[in-house]
């Protein structure tokens, strides 16, 4: 995970904002993976959608990257 992304997620965590949909998240109602650096989401749905997209984007990027060296 990129440092800037961690900083972004921590900033949203401090402000109690869901990184995926931007909704204010009540303290204590956050959906977390167990680490503040991974963000605090308003729902399981936001959490899984956020990480599904991120992992898909990362997979695309590494596929592109490795094909350039093939
Ligand atoms: Zn959300």
What report would you give on this structure?
The chain is mainly α and 70 residues long. The chain has one domain (3-65). The protein is built from two helices and no strands. It starts with a helix and ends with a helix. Bound molecules: zinc ion. Residues 18, 20-21, 23, 41-43, 46 line the site of zinc ion.
Largest beta sheet, briefly?
none
Order of helices and strands: HH
The helical percent reads: 40-55%
The overall strand count is 0
Write a concise keyword list for the protein shown above:
70 residues; mainly alpha; binds zinc ion; single chain
Give the SSE map.
Layout: H1 3-14, H2 44-68
The protein binds zinc ion (ZN).
The site of zinc ion has 8 residues, from loops.
Can you give me a brief rundown of this structure?
The protein has 2 helices and no strands. The protein is mainly α and 70 residues long.
